[in-house]
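Saturday, quiet lab. Running sequence design on the structure tokens for the scaffold JK sent over.
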């Protein structure tokens, strides 16, 4: 089948979903453009920062469009491209976008409270503690998986016969790493200039584009040649600062600049498919079982992950975006719009992988990142872009997908840990509680634990990450059901995704646990790989089960319209 046809069908369906279903949700729940948002009510110049709608959209999209839509869609294509496409579209429209928008909406209507505090309000303090612990464990998985991907992308060496030597892509990878470092420095310059001169509109766009191009140009001229371990350390140093610095200084300007790159990447992929319109060489459907991944249910759903629905997105919606939205009318494009755009990115990744596959359906060699990067770079070369420039740009883009999620999740992980031990009156709290809630201590502890998990490797973490991610979305949906019920708003549209996600994630976690136990039984397990995965899987299942039981009790015990 022609890949162009697939992309056009997906784009039309996702646009129609935004215009009709998204607006229907906004009207059903109620949007008040005149209401004072938390960003204005609690403006502190650090977390609560009133920001225009498109900048918040850039932050939301950059933060949620991590490695998931590319890695998940390409990995899941072992079941065939049609099941992946159907789940990305159905999941993105009716599951993911609804959850993201709902989390943002509930948070804005509750003074910008994070999902943990929303659970305390609607489920109870015990539920909140368990949820925050679940979130913190989940953020460790995300940081570990994505940091390992980034370091692997920038790695200039490869192992041959037990010895390290420079890889063929050493120069390109090193340039992408250098560009990333310059990108961070220029983003802070962007933030400082914005803070002082308040550039808006075309001035902001021009400044952002100039700094983005400068980072690309300088990075290609002076590539840093370093190994994976070195890049891992550098990545963790960066996300430490991203977790503690004010939003306006690093996170927001970096998201805005990253969005320009993503637009270029998506445009390149779309134009390449439009001009070349290659054939989808991957098979339509390969069967309900795959020897490597397992059964299509539930593995397809947890592998596609962020391209269709993601609990992590809800943490971004309620953790950072809700504190920067300056007008409620922007919530639709930030919450619902960013998710459907991510679903389109997943479709593009699937089509690029399909075009790169051999005529007999054999997938292209390499990691999903490498397949997508080289495929889109090839499209750029069609338009006369030099090979080195195209490769550097795309390598930087795919690593930026992970980096933008990393800096968001590191901040959310730090905040989840702080909220886990915080009390209402922190001024008179015990010394140990103040120590645990210290911004720097909580950030360092989170990153140290995540670093230990990087030893497992992203390929081993991904199945567990996907299961935890989908379970997190189910827990968020339960909370949203209670919120909508007590505030007199319709919540029936949340029941199908809630039930399906609970079934999918419950099955996936049980299967994963059984597989890890069997690995121990046959003596092939290693503690730093299977052992840590088993511990986390059991903890996630136990926490998830208790949270769901408490949430359902709260839902059936809640009085309808008690907060209307």
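Result came back. Writing it out in full:
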């Amino acid at each position: 089948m022609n890949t162009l046809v697939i992309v056009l069908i997906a784009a039309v369906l996702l646009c129609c979903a935004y215009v009709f279903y998204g607006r229907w949700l906004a009207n059903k729940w109620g949007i008040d453009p005149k209401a004072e948002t938390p960003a204005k009510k609690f403006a502190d110049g650090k977390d609560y920062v009133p920001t225009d709608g498109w900048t918040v959209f850039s932050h939301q999209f950059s933060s949620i469009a991590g490695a998931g839509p590319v890695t998940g869609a390409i990995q899941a294509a072992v079941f065939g491209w049609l099941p992946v496409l159907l789940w990305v579209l159905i999941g993105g429209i009716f599951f993911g976008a609804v959850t993201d928008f709902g989390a943002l909406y509930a948070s804005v209507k509750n003074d910008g409270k994070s999902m943990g505090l929303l659970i305390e309000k609607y489920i109870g303090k015990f539920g909140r503690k368990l949820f925050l612990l679940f979130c913190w464990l989940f953020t460790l998985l995300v940081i570990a998986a994505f940091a390992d991907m980034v370091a692997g992308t920038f790695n200039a060496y490869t192992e041959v016969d037990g010895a390290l030597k420079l890889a063929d892509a050493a120069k390109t990878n090193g340039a992408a790493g250098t560009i990333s470092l310059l990108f961070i420095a220029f983003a802070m310059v962007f933030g400082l200039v914005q803070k002082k001169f308040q550039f808006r509109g075309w001035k902001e766009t021009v400044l952002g584009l100039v700094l983005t191009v400068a980072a690309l140009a300088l990075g290609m001229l002076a590539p840093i040649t370093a190994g994976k371990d070195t890049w891992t350390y550098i990545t963790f140093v960066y996300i430490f600062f991203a977790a503690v610095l004010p939003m306006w200084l690093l996170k927001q300007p970096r998201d805005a600049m990253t969005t320009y790159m993503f637009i270029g990447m998506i445009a390149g992929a779309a134009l390449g498919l439009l001009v070349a319109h290659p054939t989808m060489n991957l098979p339509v459907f390969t069967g309900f079982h795959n020897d490597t991944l397992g059964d299509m249910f539930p593995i397809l759903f947890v592998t596609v992950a962020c391209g269709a629905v993601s609990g992590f997105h809800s943490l971004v919606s309620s953790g950072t975006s809700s504190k920067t939205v300056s007008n409620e009318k922007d919530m639709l494009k930030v919450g619902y719009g960013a998710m459907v755009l991510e679903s389109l990115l997943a479709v593009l990744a699937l089509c690029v992988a399909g075009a790169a596959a051999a005529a007999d359906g054999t997938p292209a060699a390499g990691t999903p990142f490498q397949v997508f990067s080289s495929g889109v770079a090839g499209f750029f070369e069609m338009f006369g872009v030099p090979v080195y420039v195209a490769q550097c740009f795309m390598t930087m883009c795919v690593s930026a997908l992970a980096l933008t999620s990393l800096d968001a999740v590191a901040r959310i992980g730090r905040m989840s840990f702080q909220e886990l031990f915080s009390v209402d009156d922190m001024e008179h709290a015990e010394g140990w509680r103040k120590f645990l809630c210290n911004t720097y201590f909580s950030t360092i502890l989170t990153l140290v634990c995540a670093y230990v998990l990087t030893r497992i490797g992203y390929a081993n973490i991904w199945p567990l990450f996907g299961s935890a991610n989908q379970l997190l979305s189910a827990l968020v949906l339960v909370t949203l059901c209670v919120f909508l019920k007590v505030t007199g708003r319709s919540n029936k549209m949340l029941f199908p995704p809630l039930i399906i996600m609970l079934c999918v994630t419950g099955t996936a976690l049980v299967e994963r646990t059984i597989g890890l136990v069997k690995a121990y039984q046959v003596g092939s397990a290693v503690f730093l790989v299977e052992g840590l995965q088993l511990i986390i899987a059991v903890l996630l299942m136990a926490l998830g089960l208790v949270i769901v039981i408490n949430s359902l009790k709260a839902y059936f015990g809640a009085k309808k319209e008690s907060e209307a």
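Notes for JK: The mean pLDDT is 89. Residues 387-421 form the longest helix (35 residues). Ask whether to fix the surface positions before the next round.
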